[in-house]
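Appendix B. Chain record.
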Amino acid sequence: GEAEPLGDWLQRVLETHDLEKLRAPLEEVLRLHYRHRFDPIGLNAGDREALRRETSRCLEAVTALRAPAPT
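Structure tokens predicted for this chain:
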């Protein structure tokens, strides 16, 4: 298949799933990821911690959306 840039994929997923409330946090995670991966300077300790923290929060939020409703 054809490779899809992460930014394009994220926009498509946000439009097709119930993730609008995660738009800003996911865009920030993507921004930090790109800096970590491609910026020669990389991330400072605070930004690395923010990337870890926000990634965990987003994963928890997505997991909660997929969890069955309590009975």
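Further analysis of this model is presented in Appendix C.
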